[in-house]
């Protein structure tokens, strides 16, 4: 299956793009996924839409610099991944919500580990986010003790608090209770009006959110 890019409007290079992808190519063994994929991600909320197997998570990993493309270039605010990989990755927040990397530490320890990479991340904001997500009673527990939904709340709190130039969110409503979904929708509504770039992978546009653009991934 090959994924292709389709913007909701004719593709126009934006001079105010925060993240620029040019000619990305990526294939798993015997499974080509992206060929000459290019996009301009501007401030606000971009929806990355596609069915299972369309490459949403793979594309987020490529944009984060976690997964190496076979070809192409990525820049954030003029910082090129190829030439300045560490500085590029400091400009982007990404964490695969399925990760088991932090199982042995608490949510508080995880938050503390992010402060060197994201200096704008503050304890006060994290506290408000944890409270809004119903996460506060679980902050001192090792992550292996938390439910899938609670772990995802930890990652979401970090994402919204990090202050990164680019934030990448993979299925942000998965495994959340209704109250937390509503809270995340409020956060995304604010993100849609911000000067930073937010890319959300999801199956369909959430009702009521103003989107900067929609990128379709499909066969």
Topology:
Elements lengths: L3 E4 L11 E10 L2 E11 L2 E6 L6 H9 L6 E6 L2 E2 L4 H6 L1 E2 L13 H7 L9 H10 L15 H14 L4 E5 L7 H14 L5 E6 L10 E6 L1
Parallel strand pairs: 4-9, 4-10, 7-8, 8-9
Antiparallel strand pairs: 1-10, 2-3, 2-5, 5-6
Descriptive account of the structure:
The chain is of the alpha/beta class. It has a single domain (4-218), classed as Rossmann fold (3-Layer(aba) Sandwich). The chain contains 6 helices and 10 strands; from the N terminus they run E-E-E-E-H-E-E-H-E-H-H-H-E-H-E-E. The strands form 2 sheets. It has a 6-stranded mixed sheet, with helices on both faces. A 4-stranded antiparallel sheet has the order 3-2-5-6. Strand 2 (19-28) and strand 3 form a beta hairpin. Helix 4 runs antiparallel to helix 5. The longest helix has 14 residues, at 148-161. Residues 1-14 have low confidence and may be disordered.
């Amino acid at each position: 299956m090959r994924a292709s890019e389709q913007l909701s409007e004719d593709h126009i290079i934006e001079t105010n793009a925060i993240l620029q992808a040019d000619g990305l190519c990526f294939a798993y063994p015997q499974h080509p996924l992206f060929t000459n994929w290019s996009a301009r991600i501007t401030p606000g909320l971009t929806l990355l839409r596609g069915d299972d197997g369309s490459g949403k998570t793979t594309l987020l990993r490529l944009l984060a610099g976690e997964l190496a493309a076979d070809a192409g270039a990525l820049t954030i605010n003029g910082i090129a991944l190829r030439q300045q990989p560490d500085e590029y990755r400091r400009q982007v927040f990404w964490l695969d919500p399925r990760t088991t990397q932090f199982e042995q530490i608490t949510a508080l320890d995880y938050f503390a580990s992010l402060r060197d990479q994201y200096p704008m991340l503050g304890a006060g904001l994290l506290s408000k986010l944890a409270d809004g997500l119903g996460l506060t009673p679980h902050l001192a527990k090792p992550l292996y003790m938390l439910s899938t939904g609670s772990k995802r709340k930890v990652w979401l709190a970090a994402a919204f608090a990090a202050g990164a130039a680019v934030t990448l969110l993979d299925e942000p409503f998965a495994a959340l209770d209704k109250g937390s979904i509503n809270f995340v929708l409020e956060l995304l509504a604010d993100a849609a009006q911000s000067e930073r770039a937010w890319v959300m992978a999801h199956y369909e546009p959430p009702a009521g959110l103003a989107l900067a653009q929609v990128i379709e991934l499909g066969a």
